[in-house]
Known about the structure:
- This protein is an alpha/beta fold.
- The protein has helices at 40-50, 65-76, 118-123, 125-130, 142-154, 171-174, 184-190, 198-204, 243-253, 259-273, 286-304, and strands at residues 3-7, 11-18, 32-38, 54-62, 84-87, 93-100, 103-109, 133-136, 159-161, 179-180, 210-212, 218-221, 227-230.
- Helices cover 36% and strands 22% of the residues.
- The protein has a 6-stranded parallel beta sheet, sandwiched between helices. A 4-stranded mixed beta sheet has the order 3-2-6-7.
- The longest helix has 19 residues, at 286-304.
- The model is unreliable at 299-305 (pLDDT under 50).
Amino acid sequence: MTRVLVVGSINMDLVVETQTFPRLGETLLGERFATYPGGKGANQAVAAARLGAAVTLIGCVGNDAFGAQLKAGLAAQGIDTRWIREAATAATGIAAITLCQADNAIVVVPGANQLLGPADLDAAEAAFASCDVVLAQLEVPLATVQHAAALASKHGKPFILNPAPASALPAALLDQITLLTPNEYELAVALGEPDAEWQTLLAALPGGVVMTKGAGGAYFSDADGTIQHQPGFKVTPVDTTGAGDTFNGALAAFWHLGLAEAAWRASAAGALSVTKAGAQGGMPRLTELDAFLRDGLQHAASTRS
């Protein structure tokens, strides 16, 4: 069982479903409204936990109803929540999500996530010492992410960073990242190379980047800089929210299997996640993922024979 430490955001997702996205100044009648647990940190923690990892999450919520609900939900997933701080001076973060024709538009209000600081990580340093891999995103302050990378390095742990939302990354942080997991746009922004071809950027960081391409799967460079492609898996999408988070949580959960194997399993997990509603609602359990991959291999074998 891989021990995954996640440092990141915890939000409540407020989801509206519509037939069209509203234009500037337009008011639309929505079809449905629901609340779902979210935040990239929490999402990736749940994804890893459902796939068999022992997960600890470091984060911050408000001292409010959303915060209590989210902490209880994470604990129910088997996630160690002892290092989730309840802040009295900020509300729990939220994400306002509009779903339309299986696509989405999202506005995030960070709230208490912005209060997660280096001191919170220092208080949880034992978690860095005891984990197998550290996973972080950019929905908490950059200084906190940099400190997480430093603590991972101090304890000799691999550090995976999902650079979302897109942001330019300091050279000192890039030097401490074991694996960067952007989409194509995030890759260019993270490396400060907006005009470079993504193939060039991947080849320049051998073994250090896995770039996601949605339904197109993922691309990564091996140790000698050769670009490898992990094709996407064909499914019928219902809600694409959380697919990237599922991919990242799965990468961490299967880190011990090597990059190519982890990317294969993560791509399948990400595909499965879009077949149900909610960022966390569609995240597969290990038995579901194994069955999906087994059926796919059997289908491929029968097609070849």
